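Example 9 (inverse folding). The structure is encoded as follows.
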């Protein structure tokens, strides 16, 4: 089924399922008044058995701070990997080598004078090419844009720089982030397969050591699908927690700006830096006062985890087995695990259909005249999505919004009974490049519901298939309970279920 057919199927589904209740006023940031999370419980010492083959954000930050490594050396290692592997894997749209070297030199000079800029001093980070970096074009991996350089950094990029991060370059994405494959790029474990999308380039960069941290986006599944398929952590925080000022709009009511990294601790460090309200983003919200890193290694004893049966329907047996092992590990660490019937399979179908209508209709409104004036520059897949979205009646769009609010209220009630939900991030491992179109819905089915209603969700590597391909566990929590996901995610990291070793000289998976 191609993307045009998928869209028509989604529109037909929404039109055929009118809301029976009397209409309610749809909310935009419907969870903005939810209470913030309580302080983190005491930490439990956790030593991950994951022998990482590349440096992490946390390890680099510690080494640079202690003087064991310079920012220039850290960047040089990343650039060496870019030169060796990027031509075949295509992680980057553009690398700002000269500017990054100058930034690293300035940071090293400041450290020699006794000044550390911030918690990410000297740590190399990549930025998805739908996010503005001053002085670089934001192409969204498309020929549609004119190539003019951004005049200022996006809010999250500016915060990364202020914390001392060195921006390596702009990473590849599915065109305008309108997909889950990043078709021009290749999976670092097996280059005959997709890396997942749309933040595919950032995932590749992290796995291969081109950049230990990444800044991406997640509108439907775009940070968690590539995290699951490529073997990294993708953390989609509560909607509005990370401002989207300076991010190319896909869907103004679903777009999330999100960190990606090798470990949950790394993701928490990045989230600490980029979270918090920005007056230029009307949907941004204030963050809790306590650092997210306080939740790294926090006790999970007594946390209630609901495991939706629907989340495993249609899952590859190896994916299901790996996720079950991870859930068993959380139970062994003290969490209370219960099989539940919500959300049901019908809920997953509804959110995938309604989420498609909302996100693509809003995308079509954003692209406006470009769709006709520059149609020849878009890929056929993107044109078909935007063309179909322009045909959606207003009543269908509003019907999708009403379905959204009803589902949000039900899941909010569910997550008052449970601290988190656990299910596969993707039902399958990374498909072959030629077969990717067959798996468009399968890849993202379990991720879309939580972007649709803005609840925090994270994909954490929890194993590898017999072919050596990564598998991701998805954890979901109520709005502003992002810290609980960090506690649970670091507990998964500590189980040592995922072998991240990658032969970096070839960029290919082990056999």
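The amino acid assigned to each position is listed next.
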């Amino acid at each position: 089924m191609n993307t045009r057919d998928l869209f028509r199927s989604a529109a037909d589904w929404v039109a055929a399922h009118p809301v029976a209740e009397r209409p309610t006023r749809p909310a935009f940031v419907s969870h903005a008044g939810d209470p913030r999370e309580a302080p983190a419980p005491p930490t439990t010492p956790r030593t991950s058995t994951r022998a990482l083959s590349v440096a992490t954000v946390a390890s680099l930050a510690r080494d640079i701070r202690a003087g064991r490594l310079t920012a220039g050396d850290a960047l040089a290692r990343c650039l060496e990997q870019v030169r060796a592997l990027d031509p075949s894997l295509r992680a980057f749209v553009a690398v700002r080598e000269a500017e990054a070297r100058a930034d690293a030199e300035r940071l090293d000079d400041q450290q020699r004078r006794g000044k550390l800029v911030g918690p990410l001093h000297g740590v190399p980070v990549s930025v998805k090419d739908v996010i503005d970096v001053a002085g670089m074009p934001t192409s969204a991996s498309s020929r549609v844009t004119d190539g003019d350089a951004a005049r200022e950094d996006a809010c999250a990029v500016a915060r990364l720089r202020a914390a001392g991060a060195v921006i390596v370059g702009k990473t590849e994405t599915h065109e305008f982030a309108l997909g889950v494959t990043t078709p021009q790029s290749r999976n670092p474990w097996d280059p005959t397969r997709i890396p997942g999308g749309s933040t595919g380039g950032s995932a590749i960069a992290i796995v291969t050591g081109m950049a230990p941290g990444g800044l991406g986006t997640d509108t439907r599944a775009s940070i968690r699908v590539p995290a699951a398929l490529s073997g990294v952590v993708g953390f989609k925080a509560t909607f509005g927690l990370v401002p989207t000022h300076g991010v190319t709009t896909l869907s103004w009511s679903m777009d999330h700006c999100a960190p990606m990294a090798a470990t949950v601790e790394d993701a928490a460090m990045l989230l600490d830096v980029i979270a918090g309200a920005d007056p230029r983003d009307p949907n941004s919200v204030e963050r809790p006062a306590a650092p997210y890193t306080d939740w790294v290694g926090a006790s999970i004893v007594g946390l209630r985890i609901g495991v939706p049966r629907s989340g495993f329907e249609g899952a590859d047996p190896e994916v299901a087995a790996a996720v079950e092992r991870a859930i068993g590990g959380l139970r062994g660490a003290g969490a209370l695990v219960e099989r539940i019937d919500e959300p049901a399979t019908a809920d997953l179908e509804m959110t995938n259909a309604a989420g498609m209508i909302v996100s693509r209709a809003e995308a079509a409104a954003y692209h406006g005249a470009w769709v006709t004036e520059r149609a020849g520059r878009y890929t056929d897949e993107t044109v078909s999505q935007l063309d179909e979205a322009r045909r959606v009646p207003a009543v269908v769009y509003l019907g999708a919004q009403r379905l959204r609010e009803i589902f949000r209220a039900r899941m909010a009630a569910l997550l008052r009974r449970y601290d988190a939900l656990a299910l596969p991030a993707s039902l399958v491992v990374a498909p072959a490049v030629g077969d990717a179109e067959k798996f468009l819905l399968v890849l993202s089915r379990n991720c879309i519901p939580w972007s649709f209603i803005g609840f925090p969700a994270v994909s954490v590597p929890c194993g590898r298939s017999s072919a050596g391909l990564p598998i991701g566990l998805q954890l979901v929590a109520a709005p502003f309970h992002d810290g609980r996901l960090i506690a649970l995610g670091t507990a998964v990291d500590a189980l040592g279920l995922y072998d991240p070793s990658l032969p970096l000289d070839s960029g290919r998976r082990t056999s």
